[in-house]
Amino acid sequence: MPNLLVHPARPDAAGRVHAITPQSAGWTYVGFEVYDLAPGASVTRPTGATEVCLVLVSGRARIVAGGQDLGVLGGRASPFEGSPSSVYVPPGAEWTATAEGACELAVCAAPAKGGKPVRVIGPDEVGQETRGKGTNTRYVRNILPDSSPHAESLLVVEVITPGGHWSSYPPHKHDVDDPPRETYLEETYYHRLARPGGFAVQRVYTDDRSLDETMAVGDRDVVLVPRGYHPVGAPHGFDLYYLNVMAGPVRQWKFTMAPEHAFLTF
């Protein structure tokens, strides 16, 4: 089984620091990349047989997708400052991002057949909700939730977890293809910390403990969740951001709670 904790690499010639594919992750659906673009730098990629959601994690970039110049998008200085600008790009298209100032760009991908148009998802379109209570409170930004008609396979969401709080908690899983009770969804977590030098903790485990890994997660690490429960803890003083990408055979987020935690509020 591939390592579930993936550290960022040194930028390649295109500025890419993460390059997670279904092949490298040992699964079928989710691909994920992150690019660090210097001012004026540009990257162009075809979508191939996948649909793509470009998320401007920070900074600004001019986006051209499917032959359309979508203008300069983004602008937040960090992922902790409000909702993002994102772009949906269908299969069989090409996209280009040209940075205006330093830009951090995430590329979320999953197989699709086509038929959805190129679309800008502006910050004002990102649904926001507060989930949990007490030290289980976190703040969710729904970029491409399962209620959105603008994608075939992808589910994309950002979450802010205050320091001292838990997230993706109580533990839940979505590794059984049994809708509507539960849906099979592969998932990546791209973690950012508001302060340098800190860490978060993420555990990925199954009921039978055939998979049971607990990881100290640093800034810009990715955690792969092929199956099982996957709670996250943010230590006191270190607010945590993560960008989730999910995809599977059915574009629905249906999960099962860990039975011993079911008395808690999700």
UniProtKB/TrEMBL annotation:
Keywords: Isomerase. SUPFAM superfamilies: RmlC-like cupins. Pfam families: KduI (PF04962). It comes from the Bacteria. InterPro entries: Deoxy-glucuronate_isom_IolB (IPR024203), KduI/IolB_isomerase (IPR021120), RmlC-like_jellyroll (IPR014710), RmlC_Cupin_sf (IPR011051). It is an enzyme of class 5 (isomerase). Its EC number is 5.3.1.30. GO terms for molecular function: 5-deoxy-D-glucuronate isomerase activity. The keyword Isomerase applies. This is 5-deoxy-glucuronate isomerase.
